[in-house]
C-alpha cells in the first residue's frame, strides 16, 4: 500500500486484524517509524523503518509462515521476526485499529493490495515499480 502520513509522531494504524488490546497484529506509524508485526500490550516485535512525513511511501508487510518482513519503497527493513498471532478475518481494518478508542491513520492510503501467498523479493520490487508510476 502507498501511504502519505501527515503525522509520524503519534500512533496511526494503517492495518490491523485483532480485537484485543494486548494481542494485536498490523502495520502502523509511530514515533517516526513504520512498523509491521505483533504488539503484546507492552512492546512491539517485528520490522520497522523510517517514516516519511508528507511524502508518498510504499509499504508492504509479508507474513511467511510466521516470519514477518517489511519493505519500504522496495527495500527490506530491519527488526526481529515474530509470530503473527491471533489472525482473524472478522477484525480486519484499514486506516484504524480495532479498539473501542481507535488510533486512526492521519494521512492518505492508496493502492491497498492483499495476496493469498507470501511475495518474493522480486514480487515486491515489481509491484513497487509498477504502482509507483500511478502515485508520482
Describe the structure concisely for a colleague.
The protein is mainly beta. Helices cover 11% and strands 40% of the residues.
Q: What order do the strands of the largest sheet run in, or round the barrel if closed?
A: 9-5-4-3-2-10
Shape: globular
Radius of gyration, in angstroms, nearest whole number: 14 Å
Q: How far do the termini sit from each other? A: 14 Å
- Number of β-strand runs: 11
Number of domains: 1
Order of helices and strands: EEEEEEEEEEEH
Q: What's the architecture in CATH terms?
A: Sandwich
Count helical runs.
1
Helix content: 10-25%
Q: What can be said about the biggest beta sheet?
A: 6 strands, antiparallel
What average pLDDT do the residues reach? Answer: 81
Uncertain residue ranges: none
- Assign the structural class, choosing from mainly alpha, mainly beta, alpha/beta, alpha+beta, or little secondary structure: mainly beta
Strand content: 35-45%
Reported by name, the CATH topology is Jelly Rolls
CATH classification class: Mainly Beta
Structure report:
Helix content is 11%, strand content 40%. It has 136 residues and is mainly β. The protein has a six-stranded antiparallel β-sheet with strand order 9-5-4-3-2-10, with no helix packed on it. A five-stranded antiparallel β-sheet has the order 8-7-6-1-11, covered by helices on one side. Strand 2 and strand 3 form a beta hairpin. The chain is globular and about 35 Å long.
Amino acid at each position: 500500500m502507498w501511504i502519505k502520513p501527515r503525522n509520524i509522531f503519534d500512533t496511526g494504524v494503517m492495518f490491523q486484524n485483532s480485537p484485543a488490546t494486548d494481542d494485536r497484529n498490523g502495520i502502523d506509524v509511530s514515533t517516526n517509524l513504520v512498523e509491521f508485526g505483533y504488539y503484546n500490550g507492552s512492546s512491539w516485535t517485528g520490522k520497522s523503518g523510517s517514516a516519511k512525513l508528507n511524502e508518498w511511501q510504499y509499504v508492504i508487510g509479508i507474513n511467511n509462515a510466521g516470519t514477518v518482513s517489511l519493505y519500504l519503497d522496495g527495500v527490506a527493513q530491519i527488526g526481529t521476526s515474530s509470530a503473527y498471532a491471533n489472525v482473524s478475518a472478522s477484525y480486519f481494518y484499514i486506516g484504524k485499529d480495532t479498539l473501542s478508542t481507535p488510533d486512526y491513520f492521519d494521512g492518505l492510503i492508496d493502492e491497498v493490495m492483499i495476496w493469498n501467498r507470501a511475495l518474493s523479493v522480486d514480487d515486491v520490487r515489481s509491484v513497487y515499480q509498477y504502482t509507483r508510476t500511478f502515485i508520482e
